[in-house]
Amino acid sequence: MREYSIVLPTHDNDGTCLATLHNRLKRELIAQFDGYSATAQTGGWVNSEGELFEEPSIRYTVAAMSATMALTRISEASAMTIKNIAKKYGILAGQQAMYVVLDGTVEIITIGA
């Protein structure tokens, strides 16, 4: 099994609640990975202009496995799926970047302003 995580803020940068978006993400993770774990957290980061973004968020963690695929192929396919989901929800949430963990390796996915 491999473990993957996506961190999605609870509110967008204008303060709008993203509960509906979180519900969509949960359904998509269930469809793709048969389940998820969710952990509330708070984090912060500084963009290239020096602006601090401090926000409550939820980390969604999934496990990927397959009885028929080689572990390397599972890892590559699942990592690409998580990156695509993170980018999609980052765009929908109006984020500049998304924090993902791909089997222990952190990646920041740039979305844009």
Give short descriptive properties of this protein.
113 residues; alpha+beta; Alpha-Beta Plaits; five-stranded antiparallel sheet; 2 helices
Structural category: alpha+beta
Please outline the major beta sheet. 5 strands, antiparallel
Tell me the β content.
35-45%
Strand order of the largest sheet: 2-3-1-4-5
CATH class: Alpha Beta
Tell me the CATH topology: Alpha-Beta Plaits
Span between termini: 35 Å
Tally the beta strands. 5
Low-confidence stretches: none
Shape: globular
The level of helicity is 25-40%
Helix and strand pattern: EHEEHEE
Q: C-alpha Rg, in Å?
A: 14 Å
For the residues shown, what is the average pLDDT?
Answer: 88
**CATH architecture name:** 2-Layer Sandwich
Count up the helices: 2
When the domains are counted, the total is 1
SSE layout and pairing:
Blueprint lengths: L1 E8 L9 H15 L3 E10 L5 E13 L6 H22 L4 E6 L2 E6 L3
Antiparallel strand pairs: 1-3, 1-4, 2-3, 4-5
Summary of the model, kept short:
The protein is an alpha+beta fold and 113 residues long. It contains 2 helices and 5 strands; from the N terminus they run βαββαββ. The chain has one domain: Alpha-Beta Plaits (2-Layer Sandwich).
